[in-house]
Amino acid sequence: MNYCHIQKLFLCFFLLMFLFSSGQQGGVKASSAHHRHGSSPVYSFRPTKLFVLGDSYSDTGNRRKSELNSWKYPFGITFPGKPTGRFSDGRVLTDYIAKFVGLRSPLPYQWRKVGASAKLVKYGMNLAHGGTGVFNTVFLGPNMTIQIDFLERLTNKYSVYTTRDLQSSIALVTVAGNDYLTYISRNGSAQGFPSLISSVVNQLTSNLKRIHKLGVKKIALTAIEPFGCLPWFTTKTSFKHCNETLNKLISLHNDLLHQAVAKLNNETHDSPFTILDLYASFTTVFKNKGDPLRGIKFENPLKPCCVGISSAYSCASVDQNGVKKYTLCDDRQSTFFWDAVHPSQEGWRSVFSALQPTLEQIFYA
After folding, report:
1. Tell me, which GO biological process terms does this entry list (predicted)?
2. Catalytic amino acids?
């Protein structure tokens, strides 16, 4: 799908629609996760390290404590019982994928010089930075290109990892959502969205090529979740309906991404790139209100546990007198979203369950 075709589609669907208009909840269906039965699985590729690049969906502590609320109560209240810089009440996608491949969650890049870190670098490194994007965003932090620079220095300049280490590793990439949030926050026009989508996917494609060129054998990257279902946007409907205008915009990004990845895989002999479809997995969980097979249930998947009083994005905020500017739900396990943008630990567990068949295709013979 070329740029002109995207623009025609976009204008056809959205030119007369206001960007933030509310729609009815819906989305793309995804296959239910399945279990692998019988004998132990046979690995076609079992990584020894996990390298993580991206944003808050995979960050496990790279934002400095003074920068964002992820280091404040009640973040981390479920796991490990205190804030660790994760943008959730507990575990995030990185933690579940690391466990799936039999590794410890890799060390956040900012802690690499701590004395104890020598014991942890053997599992890889987490370079993801909450708030960042493919390009620079209003949330600051090193963008994806800079994160790849960090990884390259760890290999070539500082010799923390060898080329062989990278060849026996997997990379997890979660990025691009903040590029679109930045555009929206700057009141970008609806007509300008197709051009932005094209630029983001083109740059992301270049970045993926670069990661593979460094020697990483398998790269799993996330499609963007249904944006219009984030509490940041559903608060206007009291968390009852998704904004389908935004969801269709994000679908354009995901369609282009699938095409770009298919082309990349055709250009390489080992098909190293796999898309983890967050759009489909989120939508499946919303439709089922959880994951019945694993006993996960959400009463209202669109309503977050930590709800800001003055704004959608004020979880953990307090006023000058220390009075909380948010309310906290009674049962964190009953909510898919933790705050205005991020899933809860239980939310991520349900998403990982939906993604598991794709992950099995990467690693199992």
Report:
1. lipid catabolic process
2. 56, 339, 342
